[in-house]
Amino acid sequence: MALGTIEIAPGMAFSDIALGAGKRGIPAFREETFQIMDRYVDVYGGNCFDSAHLYEDGESDKALGAWLRRRGAGQRHSLFICTKGSHPTPGQMHMPRLSAAEIAADLDAALSDIGTEYADLHMVHRDDVRIPVSDIVPALDALVKSGKARHVGVSNWTATRIIEANRFARQNNLSPLRCCQMHFSLGITTAPTTGDITHVPMNDVEFGWYKESGFPIMAFCAQARGFFSVLAAGREPSERQRKYYDLLPENHRRLERLIKLSGELGVAPSAVCIAYVRDNAVRATALCAFSSLAQMEESMRAAEIRLAPQQVRYLETGE
């Protein structure tokens, strides 16, 4: 059941299912999340861990560091640690934190908390189109030149801004953006739906560029925040699940098709959701978090299946 990989840069291939932070930074769940992390590496052959200084006020980074120390120093070189910084202060999403000093300070804080000398990929968490890429790209390049990040990327940036940033990088011999984290799942949503103006979910325009360019995606909310699994089990969605997905009728039509296909494949809806992201027409790593070992085992059966293009199309359109 070994996972596949997606190359995001020469010599750097991420597992096509990456492990998100989940409850890692919450002390009461530390031992179970460590067991999940162990199984991800030892059973499934996974190598990609996502974290961010924002998560649990840095406790997620610290827990990742504690797990790495438990595993031993020899483990670090075989894993890919993805850090994120430059998130606006909660409650002030309209105020960017993308100055060179803020970008550098957030990575320094993450490395200190994790206890590692470098991040394999460091991403800025949000964008602000009022700030020219000529201000941001050199700040990211400085992280690479310092050795504190092997590569750099972004989260919640539009294709237009990525194209502009990488054109500037090429013209000035600077480190290019290598990957984008974005909301991409079977569950569709929009920035107005989520109420976050800095949120850039997948849409037809973005999808077309990612398909044409092959630019790598790390898809967060790959399981649609558990929305489909909860409804398939006959339970009520949480307030957050309802906010993101419940009001859009298409998601309920997709739920019906998901239940049918997961029954035919003999796996849980969560596994099909992960496979949908991984097996789509874009180069995507499904970023997943699990609240328990049981949920992980159920969802990671995605490693046993591969969706054909017609199955992906059926989930999307019913055709």
Write up what this structure looks like.
By secondary structure, this protein is an alpha/beta fold. Helix content is 44%, strand content 16%. The chain has 13 helices and ten strands. It has helices at 30-42, 59-71, 100-114, 133-146, 159-171, 191-194, 204-213, 227-232, 239-246, 249-265, 269-278, 293-299, 309-317, and strands at 5-9, 12-15, 17-19, 48-50, 80-85, 119-124, 149-155, 177-183, 217-220, 284-288. It is globular and about 50 Å long. It starts with a strand and ends with a helix. The mean pLDDT is 94.
| Name of the top-level CATH class | Alpha Beta
Provide the CATH superfamily.
NADP-dependent oxidoreductase domain
CATH topology: TIM Barrel
| Biggest pleated sheet | 8 strands, parallel
Order of helices and strands: EEEHEHEHEHEHEHHEHHHHEHH
Alpha-beta content class: alpha/beta
Distance between the termini: 30 Å
Bulk shape: globular
- Under the CATH scheme, the architecture is Alpha-Beta Barrel
Number of domains: 1
Order of strands in the sheet with the most strands? 3-10-9-8-7-6-5-4
